[in-house]
Amino acid sequence: MAALPGLTPGTLPPETAGLRARVREFLAETPFTASCDSWLTGADPAFSRLLGERGWLGMALPERYGGHGRSPLERFVVIEELLAAGAPVGAHWIADRQTGPSILAHGTEEQKRRFLPAIARGECFFAIGMSEPDSGSDLASVRTRAERDGDGWRLHGTKVWTSGAHLAHAILVLARSAPRSQDRHAGLTQFIVPLPDERVAIRPIRGLSGEHHFNEVVLDGAFVPDALVLGRPGDGWRQVTAELAYERSGPERLLSTFMLIRLLHGRAGSTGARRALGGLTARLWALRQASLAVAGALARGETPELAAALVKDLGTRFEREVIAVARDHAGVEPDPGSPDPLARALAESVVQAPGFTLRGGTNEILRGIVARGLGVR
Questions:
Q1: Residue of 176, 201, 169 lying closest to 94 (CA atoms)
Q2: Contact between 296 and 7 (Cβ < 8 Å)
Q3: 339 Cβ neighbours under 8 A, 6+ residues apart
Q4: Cα–Cα distance for residue pair 175/154, rounded to 1 Å
Q5: Strand partners for 126
Q6: Residue 172 region by backbone torsions, left for phi larger than 0, else alpha for psi between -120 and 50, else beta
Q7: CA angle, 79 as apex, 245 and 213 as ends, to 5°?
Q8: Which backbone phi and psi does 218 adopt, to 5 degrees?
Q9: pLDDT tens digits, residue range 17-48?
Q10: Residues 162 and 216 sit within 8 Å (Cβ to Cβ)
Q11: Of 105, 101, 107, 90, whose CA–CA distance to 41 is shortest?
Q12: Distance CA 256, CA 353 (A)
């Protein structure tokens, strides 16, 4: 495929083949309930601890902080296999994917030693407090405020669509720590808020089918000591935009509906079904190369924000198209109670599909980022 702006297509080193085989063997031997969109909906803390025991969490973190000193490309292989199998990785997902690297990049020595080893063991889960009511993907408009109080800060405000907050041991909150100015990106700071906290209310936001993975989080004067400010006060915007490169570009932006492709392979009897499935498979491979290219850039210490936005936009649109092809060619209707795994997977995908192009920044916002990066806006 053609190179992304500033990137070359990614390749995996040959030694990752053995790692992939070990992950597949583990998945074949370990009982779990597979699901579509498992990195959001499939939370199983016990399964997360099993991954931690095998060294498959905190893989790219340094060994001195409890990590394993592996490359982002090796981590790519592990999470690709977990997602393709629909494994229940939602409990640890945010901590492993983005909070751990953020603490490593911006945290104090005390913060690194407190949180990173526990993340790598699968014993510390994080939620992200970014989105707010009425602000959507416009993070610069956050109204959660941080007010100075002695040797710390008091946080006041509401966060929404906070995935996994009901399971989390801490939430990383973006708040305004200085009055607004003409520079909307100035005066923002990230705060680590340990949970539970009597001044933090976590309320479920249930989906249409009754499932619970999103939450509303209300901060009513929660106190955060200076020791739990992540990075320097006022640097929140720069830190968050770097963090979003991890959030937007991984295999999860391509593989939330992979179970449908896998299940359809055994049922594509007609010429039209085989042609549609072949087209999806070809596009999936191209998108995988793009995601892998971003992983390679991260491995080199780069921050490919533009390419990550492009991967997220194209990948999440692809995931919804997989559902459309499945509905046309599966020969079954979505049914969460069906004994047919394809009917169940189709039902799960249909329920989750509205969120694909919203979470991690709406596709409209991401296209604006790409347009500005290419100098056409």
A1: 169
A2: yes
A3: none
A4: 10
A5: 170
A6: beta
A7: 75
A8: -110, 120
A9: 999 999 999 999 999 999 999 998 899 999 99
A10: yes
A11: 90
A12: 9
Task: Provide the token pair at 225.
Answer: 């000591």
Q: Which amino acid is at 49?
A: R
CA distance 125 to 284: 30
Write down the pLDDT at residue 245: 67
The runs of H, that is alpha helices, within the chain are 16-29, 38-41, 45-53, 72-84, 93-94, 100-106, 109-121, 236-249, 252-255, 258-264, 271-299, 305-329, 341-356, 363-373
Structure pTM?
0.90
Per-residue model confidence as pLDDT tens digits over 198-209? 999 999 998 877
pLDDT in tens, 78-123: 999 999 999 999 999 999 999 999 999 999 999 999 999 999 999 9
Just list the catalytic residues.
Answer: 247
Q: Is 217:168 a contact under the CB 8 Å cutoff? A: no
